[in-house]
Write a structure and sequence with these properties.
Keywords: FAD, Flavoprotein, Monooxygenase, NADP, Oxidoreductase. Its cofactor is FAD. InterPro entries: FAD-binding_Monooxygenases (IPR050775), FAD/NAD-bd_sf (IPR036188). The structure is a single chain. By secondary structure, this protein is of the alpha/beta class. The protein has helices spanning 24-35, 52-55, 76-81, 91-104, 194-206, 230-238, 240-249, 269-282, 298-315, 319-325, 343-346, 393-396, 408-411, 445-466, 475-490, 520-532; strands at 13-20, 40-43, 111-112, 117-123, 128-133, 138-146, 169-171, 186-190, 209-214, 220-222, 338-340, 352-356, 362-365, 369-372, 375-378, 381-384, 399-401, 430-432, 468-473, 538-542. 50% of the residues are buried. The structure holds 3-acetylpyridine adenine dinucleotide.
């Protein structure tokens, strides 16, 4: 395929590929496309690269995957040369890294910032997408790649009176670029997921008073963040080939770590406590890898959950507050586990209070207070750490129309349907990076992003070599994949939680477990086998022969 040409009649810009989003997925996609000789244009609604790390600038924001692993592996020079300063990189450093990558690989010249993709319509005659962007321009592309991110549509909650609040209201997922100073203010924080749990200790240090409004108590493990030493950095750098291979092929979640060899009930109580203590003391997400059945067996899960509850009791001095902070509505890990620095200890501060809004939901937000059970909790500023319309929210904001004019939102009205998370039947030449039906949010995102981008890049080369015009998910393969994703999810404890994995945080959103829980290694093998079998399950057509099945 040669770079697409614009027809003089339409005088539109035309590309082989339009990529939506310039986060880690969009940037790497652009880099691969260019290297393969495809013409590509990236549209990014933000004013810079970095996606998640561009928007989430709230106090305390940092990644909960260790920085030496939450980084691109595609360039040996990059991974050898970039110096991460801490075990968990703070947001500003990850954003700096994203900007460094953009400069280093000269990506910016093909990225248009401050521009949303508003509509994409598939033209069945031309076998191409007609894309409308927010400056009003139309562009054409043979392929569209959605690199829109899974947690990029920040959600303002429907709480009565929120718009009447007179003070500033911030959402963690859309934080101002200028510093926010809470000194001397009474701050109300709504939401106790990863964002709320990371920001509370920092806000508490600045504010006159912090009131945390908690609907669901969450499990959180200490980060034990620290500066990285040269020795630690070199331990990774010298072993990157093996560490990356392990993360891609062996670890379920794409993170190189010691793997469990037994279930929680296979150990004596003393041995189990010792193991949990070692993981707690080390800190981080690998707490959940202490045993191999924590996500599968409720009795096993209870042992880990009870350990964390006991730590909360140890840390929090006030017994009533400690009790309220103990999660009891879901098995540990079935909502994304949080990683914190001094979250529970924050409630020992005299200027912090906790309000239970599960028993008594917020009645209303007034001009200067949050009213719960008839009591007005006066605040000067509000922080909404209320999460995202996850996995599908950002895709749903684009008016995507496939064959027969059917919209993707119509097709996904009862839950997202994809084959391998990569494509959806009826929407030819439209790829999704880390979409629903792929491991994505259950994994180290960069591992999953690189795998998807490489798979899509190989696929486009295959199509070019074979002279193929379109590719799309076959209906039968898609149905089988959706059933498989559901079946394995329901063999675990995950669907027991009202989580954003299930769409449960958005009123009216279908309750479907969206990510693929089989693990990144197994998933990668499935994708590779599908490709090796001539893209089995996908339908491909040649130019001039619409809908002729070439494979699948
Ligand atoms: O969002 P969340 P998040 N009234 O959806 C509550 C990643 N991440 O931004 O649980 C009152 O988890 C809601 O309550 P409930 C990570 O994957 C990573 O914190 O629905 N409360 C919950 O407490 C994470 O999982 C990092 O009952 C309302 C909170 O708001 C994902 O992003 C850092 C409410 C939302 O929690 C999302 O995390 C940050 C309402 N109307 C995020 N609506 C790291 O790498 C919602 N809530 C460290």
């Amino acid at each position: 395929m040669s770079p697409a040409q614009s027809s003089p009649a339409q005088a539109r810009e035309a590309y082989d590929v339009v990529v939506v989003g310039a986060g880690f997925a969009g940037m790497y996609m652009l880099h691969r496309l260019r290297g393969l000789g495809f013409s590509a244009r990236v549209y990014e609604q933000g004013g810079g690269v970095g996606g998640t790390w561009y928007w989430n600038r709230y106090p305390g924001a940092r990644c909960d995957v260790e920085s030496m692993q939450y980084s691109y592996s595609f360039s040996e020079e990059l991974q050898q040369e970039w110096d991460w300063s801490e075990r968990y990189a703070p947001q500003a450093e990850i954003l700096k890294y994203a900007n460094h990558v953009a400069d280093r690989f000269d990506l910016r010249r093909d990225i248009q910032f401050d521009t949303r993709v508003e509509r994409a319509v598939f033209d069945e005659q031309a076998n191409a997408w007609s894309v409308k962007i927010s400056d009003g321009k139309m562009v054409e592309a043979k392929f569209v790649v959605l690199a829109t991110g899974c947690l990029s549509n920040a959600r303002k909650p429907d709480i009565q009176g929120l718009d009447n609040f007179k003070g500033p209201v911030y959402h963690t997922g859309n934080w101002p670029h200028e510093p926010v100073d809470f000194a001397g203010l009474r701050v109300g924080l709504i939401g106790t997921g990863s964002s709320g749990i990371q920001s509370a200790p920092i806000i508490a240090e600045q504010a006159r008073h912090l009131t945390v409004f908690q609907r669901t108590a969450n499990f959180s493990i200490p980060a034990r963040n620290a500066a990285l030493t040269d020795e630690e950095r070199n331990a990774f750098r010298n072993n990157y080939p093996e560490i990356r291979r392990f993360a891609r092929e062996i670890a379920r979640n794409g993170i190189h770590a010691e793997q469990p060899d037994r279930g929680a009930l296979d150990d004596s109580e003393d041995a189990r406590r010792a193991k949990y203590k070692a993981r707690w003391d080390r800190g981080g997400l690998t707490f959940m890898s202490a045993y191999n059945n924590l996500g599968l067996d409720l009795a096993a899960n209870d042992t880990a959950a009870n350990y964390v509850r006991s730590k909360i009791t140890e840390i929090v001095k006030d017994a009533t507050t400690a009790k309220l902070l103990q999660p009891n509505s879901h098995p540990i890990g079935t909502k994304r586990i949080c990683i914190d620095t001094d979250y529970f200890a924050t409630f020992n501060r005299p200027n912090v209070s906790l309000v239970d809004i599960k028993t008594n939901p917020i009645e209303e937000i007034t001009a200067n207070a949050v009213r719960v059970a008839g009591t007005d909790h006066e605040v000067d500023a509000l922080v909404l750490a209320t999460g995202f319309d996850a996995m599908t929210g950002s895709v749903a904001r684009i008016d995507i129309r496939g064959r027969g004019g059917r919209t993707l939102n119509q097709k996904w009205a009862e839950g997202p349907k994809t084959y391998l998370g990569l494509m959806s039947a009826g929407f030819p030449n439209l790829f999704i990076i880390t979409g629903p039906g792929s491991p994505s949010v259950l994994s180290n995102m960069i591992v999953s992003i690189e795998q998807h981008v490489d798979w899509i890049a190989d696929c486009l080369v295959h199509m070019r070599q074979q002279g193929l015009a379109t590719m799309e998910a076959g209906g039968e393969a898609e149905d089988k994949w959706v059933a498989h994703v559901n079946e394995i999810a329901h063999g675990t404890l995950y669907p027991q939680a009202n989580s954003w994995y299930m769409g449960a945080n958005i009123p009216g959103k279908p309750r479907i477990f969206m990510p693929y829980i089989g693990g990144v290694g197994i998933y990668r093998r499935i994708c590779d086998e599908v490709a090796a079998k001539g893209y089995e399950g996908f339908v491909m057509t040649r130019a001039e022969q619409p809908r002729r099945v070439v494979t699948g």
